[in-house]
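**Sequence with structure:**
===
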Amino acid sequence: KQGGFCLSSFCHLSEEEYEKRGYLSEEFRLFHLTQPVRAPIAYHYHDFDKAVVFLGGASGYSIEGTSYTLEPYDIVLVPHYSIHRPEIEPGAPYSRLILYLSPEFLASEEGGGGKLSRLFSSAGETSSYVLRLPSMKNSLLFESLLRLEKACSEQGFCDVLLRRLLLMEFLIYLSRAALSGEAVPLTAACPNAAVLSLMRLICENPAADFSIDALASRVFLSRSHMMRLFKRETGCTLMEYINEKRLLMARALLDSGLSVTETCYRCGFKNYSAFLRAYKKSFGSPPGRRKL
């Protein structure tokens, strides 16, 4: 794989053009979007990591049940398989730089302090998905991102290598800022404690034999109130969330070489045929190891 880029992405893409690029087959892709969205964006997830640098407008962001109100130059970290969406009114100003990153690429790059993937894994483990750097606009971190953007719009000798090096520079500066505390994790805007508790419980062990009544007792809510609250805060039902996390776990196990049958039951599915149907519906193809 080689570093990816999109020459047209620096020509102020429309939202429709961006939606068509919701996949990643390279090490990375960089987009600069300035036009407002035309319709609300539904909750979704990717099989790649994503970093969003919010440049201006009026926007919030929701990731795994936590919501944030963004200010210019905030950095949103979206780990792969995290359910998320931008919270923005259609037609409102919304300018951002978006970086798609291959998890395999991040996991393969290691320095003295660990792998670059630590940036995203830590965000998921601590629910610290948004970083705020007070001096971001004038920082080496932002300068490195602008150099990367410029390199992605140019061609020349060793251009692919140059983009890769500039990407590494940006990710190293970002990781250093996060580790040193220079970039401060943003406090979520009024997260619902019960919903967060449920999501963390499910994410820690999606294969567990969950029942609605048992989950309701864990968060001290009635069954009906818990289900309404979860749907309101996340955009999906509780069982949809559990099944989605089980399917994502299944995909990872299949990629590691586990058989389809063993994967089915290890992920908490009781019926093999139901697992096959759910997997194909979610990912568009029958379960099997992907070519990474």
